[in-house]
Design a protein that fits this description.
Strand order of the largest sheet: 3-2-1-6-7-14-15
CATH topology of the largest domain: Rossmann fold
Number of domains: 2
Largest sheet: 7 strands, mixed
Shape: globular
Number of strands: 17
Helix content: 25-40%
CATH architecture of the largest domain: 3-Layer(aba) Sandwich
Radius of gyration: 22 Å
Length: about 400
């Protein structure tokens, strides 16, 4: 049985993370395991100077029943988070400047970017902390580095979280249910305003590479959706929504679009500097769609960006249950000496699976079975025998 483990959260926050942290802490302490929280995700293992008390206090937080007792009652992450990628650091912490780390150079648009692989520093810090296991909670980006540590010989258990629900090897990620619940509530509330003004309501929702959040929101609200996996015909979409509006006694129609959705001849605009995993912010495709509706068909629209609101606030029942279960599954795996696994749901059942290979990229919606590409709607047919989340990993 290990004596000490560390736990961290990386990437965007979602409701349910604190339930994992509390579950791991309470169960770990009962098993005689010391649980150390690493603040600010992977940054806590690249930037901490363990010989500096102030730095150690900033990044290393011993977890107890007292300081985690109530954290599961709220959303966000008690340990805080960043989008740090230790294998591609653009700069070194001041106290490490002058130290040699493997470097890589990339050239884009005539600009050369140098990044540093700080994995050796992460390994050194884990050794100094006496950490025998790392519990990493994150999406496909955060877990891609967990896979790197696993290959480096570190004992790692991963826990998937993302509103996009696009981590491979699992049908469900923490945060997904709450995101859908929030999106549905927002759309239902705005029906009154959109209907009062007799417009088309366009709702932009998270989903950079995968359309699960938009698809499932559309599934339970019975509206049309556009997702990244299928480029749509803009004129056809306009005709469909204009007809929906005409046939609605209240003379309005609704559409939900993933942030990464595109139509033929259009590419989502990006802006700002790329993050540690190479992602730039995406311009609001809903606003661009609105302009096209106005210019091509003189249709008035209301555009709502539902993105960040979906990850705020308390988790719903499903996310609390799954998060608590995933946390306890991680402790079960650690107690039995397993490593290199991720908690998951497969065929509707809880399971342990290999940490996904980062080279595979995010999990995508299966257009053939889940999406009606002719009508830009979810596919409602042939669900007998499928698990509760209607998809298999």
């Amino acid at each position: 049985m290990p004596k000490r483990i560390v736990i961290l959260t990386g990437g965007g926050d979602v409701p349910g993370l604190n339930s994992v942290i509390k579950g791991v802490t309470y169960r770990g302490l009962e098993m005689g395991i010391e649980v150390i929280g690493i603040r600010r995700g992977w940054e806590g293992l690249t930037h901490v100077n363990l010989e500096d008390p102030a730095s150690r206090s900033l990044y290393v937080l011993p977890l107890t029943k007292e300081n985690t007792r109530t954290i599961d009652r709220t959303g966000g992450t008690f340990l805080h988070t960043t989008r740090t990628n230790p294998s591609k650091m653009k700069s070194l912490p001041d106290f490490l400047k002058g130290r040699e780390f493997p470097k890589a150079e990339t050239v884009k648009d005539g600009k050369t970017t140098v990044t540093y692989d700080m994995t050796s520093q992460v390994l050194r810090n884990l050794e100094q902390l006496g950490a025998e296991y790392v519990v990493a909670i994150g999406g496909d980006d955060t877990l891609s580095y967990a896979a790197r540590l696993d290959k480096a010989g570190v004992n790692v258990i991963a826990i998937p979280k993302t509103m996009d629900n696009d981590v491979r090897n699992t049908e469900y990620c923490i945060g997904f249910s709450t995101a859908i619940t929030r999106a549905v509530d927002a759309i239902q509330r705005q029906r009154t305003t959109i209907g009062s003004h007799e417009r088309i309501g366009i709702f932009r929702i998270f989903g950079r590479d995968a359309g699960y959040t938009a698809l499932y929101t559309a599934y339970v609200t019975s509206i049309r959706c556009c997702i990244p996996e299928h480029k749509f015909d803009l004129d056809k979409l306009i005709d469909l929504l204009a007809n929906d509006k005409k046939n609605n006694p209240s003379n309005y129609a609704l559409l939900v679009v993933s942030e990464g959705a595109e139509w033929d001849g259009y590419q989502v605009r990006e802006y700002g500097e790329a993050d540690a995993y190479g992602h730039r912010k995406k311009a609001n495709v809903g606003e661009d769609l609105s302009e096209e509706f106005k210019n091509r068909a003189k249709l008035e629209t209301t555009v709502s960006d539902l993105t960040y609101d979906l990850r705020s606030g308390d988790p719903d029942f499903v996310d609390k249950m799954v998060a608590t279960t995933f946390g306890n599954m991680a402790l079960d795996a650690i107690a039995s000496g397993q490593s290199g696994f991720m908690t998951a749901i497969n065929s509707g059942c809880y399971s342990l699976v290999p940490i996904p290979d980062p080279a595979q990229g995010p999990r995508k919606v299966d257009i053939e079975t889940m999406y009606n590409a002719a009508r830009y709607r979810p596919n409602y047919a042939n669900k007998v025998g499928l698990p509760i989340f209607l998809t298999r990993a």
